[in-house]
User: Which sequence fits this backbone?
């Protein structure tokens, strides 16, 4: 079936099997491809690249990491991801604000971004420099907040520096032994609720890294905007997420990468077992009606390759149509751009990509993008 999109400036004017052809308009014939909205990745780390994460955040300066992040943003855009949510700079402070603004001003090619600045965690918690000589005083990759007053102060500072939303680490070090998944919570439900209320005071939202119980339940009760990773959700947590429409953002792509690039065969087998556990839990979440968004956790694996996440979500129980709806519709809502991205409709941003083949039959074609337009500007052709 033929498809046409009429673009003026940064917006779509018409879309359908046939649209108006104004005099003087440039006509671009992409041939036998599927035209679709730009993809959305709701969980990325532009300030990370493959390799030991703890070492790169120590050895590389923030200016160096910002330059790398600009290249990562370009790679993601060229792969068809025209909108992303950056889930923490991992020790680079509010450098993602500068990157977002530079992209918006046209200085660098990249997706339209929602950024969180540095993520928030507790002393000795997730992303703290636990394995180093204490006398060296190695800094955490997150910003400490150990009480409600500290949470409020840190949130206000993050928003002052330009964060679009707040990212909190709600669970700590995960263990998985003999089929049992355990992870400690880092903030109580009351603490999380205080954080959500403080962000909401100025129209912002809180997303959490939360892999399992009881942290995931605390997050759902507190009213976060998304529960990222979500390896383990209790029946009560799933009920609340369904009722409140809090999406789970499973990050299978990074888990698969870690499993395939582990340091030893034993470590690889362990990572594969954990991935299969998450896949089983994911099927339970789908059956319970938990909403889902697409987030890859790209950064620890190469930027521009994260369409693999869509393939894995099909492998683990979704249809290609459901995955695309999770990516485009739920992703647009999660990033706060509902009615602006995720569809080819009049008045939406002209974020358009082309793939060879039918993604409704084979979602892997999203990994082979031949054309990228963002905001009416062609970046790949």
Assistant:
């Amino acid at each position: 079936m033929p498809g046409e999109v009429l673009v003026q400036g940064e917006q779509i004017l018409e879309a359908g099997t046939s649209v108006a052809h104004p005099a003087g308009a440039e006509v671009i014939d992409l041939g036998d491809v599927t035209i679709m909205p730009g993809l959305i990745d709701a969980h990325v780390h532009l300030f990370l690249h493959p390799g030991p994460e703890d070492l790169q955040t120590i050895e590389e300066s923030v200016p160096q990491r910002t330059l790398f992040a600009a290249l990562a943003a370009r790679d993601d855009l060229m792969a068809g991801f025209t909108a992303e949510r950056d889930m923490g700079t991992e020790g680079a402070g509010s450098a993602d604000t500068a990157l977002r603004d530079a992209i918006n001003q046209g200085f660098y090619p990249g997706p339209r971004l929602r950024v969180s600045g540095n993520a928030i965690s507790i002393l000795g918690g997730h992303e703290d420099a636990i394995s180093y000589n204490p006398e060296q005083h190695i800094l955490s990759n997150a910003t400490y907040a150990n009480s409600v007053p500290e949470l409020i102060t840190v949130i206000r500072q993050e928003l002052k520096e330009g964060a679009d939303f707040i990212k909190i680490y709600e669970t700590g070090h995960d263990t998985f032994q003999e089929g049992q998944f355990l992870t400690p919570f880092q903030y109580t439900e009351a603490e999380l609720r205080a954080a959500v209320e403080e962000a909401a005071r100025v129209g912002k939202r809180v997303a959490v890294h939360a892999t399992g119980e009881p942290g995931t339940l605390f997050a759902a009760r507190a009213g976060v905007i998304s529960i990222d990773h979500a390896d383990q959700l209790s029946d009560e947590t799933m009920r609340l997420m369904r009722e409140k429409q809090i999406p789970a953002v499973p990050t299978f792509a990074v888990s698969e990468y870690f499993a395939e690039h582990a340091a030893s065969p034993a470590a690889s087998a362990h990572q594969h077992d954990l991935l299969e556990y998450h896949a089983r839990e994911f099927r339970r979440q789908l059956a319970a009606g938990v909403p889902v968004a697409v987030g890859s956790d790209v950064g620890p694996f190469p930027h521009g390759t994260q369409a693999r996440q869509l393939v894995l979500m099909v492998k683990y129980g979704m249809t290609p149509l459901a995955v695309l709806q999770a990516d485009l519709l739920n992703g647009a809502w999660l990033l706060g751009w509902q009615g602006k991205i995720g569809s080819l409709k009049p008045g939406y941003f002209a974020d358009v990509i082309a793939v060879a083949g039918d993604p409704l039959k084979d979602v892997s074609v999203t990994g082979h993008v031949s054309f990228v337009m963002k905001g009416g500007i062609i970046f790949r052709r």
User: Anything to note?
Assistant: The chain has eleven helices and 17 strands. The mean pLDDT is 97. Residues 145 and 255 are 28 Å apart (CA to CA). Residues 38-346 form a domain with the TIM Barrel fold (CATH 3.20.20.140).
